[in-house]
What we know:
The protein is an alpha+beta fold. The chain is built from 2 helices and 6 strands. The chain has a 3-stranded antiparallel beta sheet with strand order 1-6-3, with no helix packed on it. Strands 2-5-4 form a 3-stranded antiparallel beta sheet, with no helix packed on it. Helix 1 runs antiparallel to helix 2 (about 125-155).
Amino acid sequence: MNNRAQQTGIGVLIMVAVLLILGSIILQASAQNLGFFRNTVEITNASITLGAVDVNISAPGQAFQGTITIFNATDNPVGEEFFHLNNNQIVNSALTWTIGANNATMANEVITISYTSEPEGFSKDSGSRAMGGIILILFAVSVLVVSIIPVVREKFLDLK
């Protein structure tokens, strides 16, 4: 290994290996967060116990999308006059929605609730959600290109 060309070749291979390892770690970490950024979650028949009149119960780390269906303990729909909902609230530095009883009829009642949840970090803009995937693909391609360029420059592919 006294040949300078051989030492340079090994240095380039080590650099490419480190680049691929770090690139794949960063790519995977970014891809994991993309799920919360792009996907809503369907919550079906979640059980919640309401508090006293005008006391809010919160669902931290999420907002709801569209409408919420609420049923009482006997599986009868509950009208909007019996409860109040507040969406996109910040409680203790976390995104949340809150629900509370408007009158004594619903106070301390167990209800089942179904809704579409927007996790914290969800993007409401469809263009942003599409760009998140494209950015990830372009990052993967750039890691691949940057790792191939030193190999081609050093002519490792020439078999002599």
